[in-house]
């Protein structure tokens, strides 16, 4: 069962992915193609106000607490984000990793 958890605002997609692994389903990561985009929170509109208020940092810290030790904080320039060890999480729940 998946739960949308609003306390992970701005990180809910990552929480959903980790719940997917924990619940016995898989995720597919495809890292061959990249695209260029502006820095997080730099575009007007959308979630810019939440990024300016550092709500993403609050959510990152909550993710670390909820998914410890598989999620850790990471400095990305002037902001804090998270790093997720997806393989370790999957192995912890005895899932197949390819």
Question: What is the topological layout?
Answer:
Elements: H1 12-22, H2 48-52, H3 55-67, E1 71-76, E2 79-84, H4 86-92
Antiparallel strand pairs: 1-2
Short description:
The protein has about 100 residues and is an alpha+beta fold. The chain has 4 helices and 2 strands, in the order αααββα.
Can you list the strand order of the major beta sheet? 1-2
Give the H and E element order.
HHHEEH
User: Which residues form runs of ≥5 with pLDDT under 50?
Assistant: none
> Tell me, what's the shape?
globular
Kindly state the mean pLDDT as a whole number? 91
Helix fraction bin: 25-40%
Total number of distinct structural domains: 1
Secondary-structure-derived class: alpha+beta
**How large is the share of residues in beta strands?**
5-15%
**Radius of gyration, Cα only, in angstroms?**
14 Å
Total DSSP E strands: 2
Question: What can you tell me about this protein's structure?
Answer:
It is built from 4 helices and 2 strands. The chain is of the alpha+beta class. The protein has one domain. The chain has a two-stranded antiparallel ribbon with strand order 1-2. The longest helix has 13 residues. It is globular and about 40 Å long. The model has no long low-confidence stretch (mean pLDDT 91).
């Amino acid at each position: 069962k998946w739960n949308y958890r609003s306390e992970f605002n701005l990180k809910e997609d990552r929480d959903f992915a980790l719940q997917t692994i924990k619940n016995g389903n898989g995720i597919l990561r495809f890292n061959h193609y990249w695209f260029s985009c502006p820095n997080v929170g730099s575009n007007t509109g959308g979630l810019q106000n939440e990024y300016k208020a550092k709500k993403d940092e609050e959510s990152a810290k909550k993710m670390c607490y909820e998914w410890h030790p598989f999620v850790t904080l990471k400095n990305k320039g002037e902001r804090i984000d998270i790093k997720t060890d997806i393989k370790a999480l999957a192995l912890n729940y005895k899932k197949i990793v390819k």
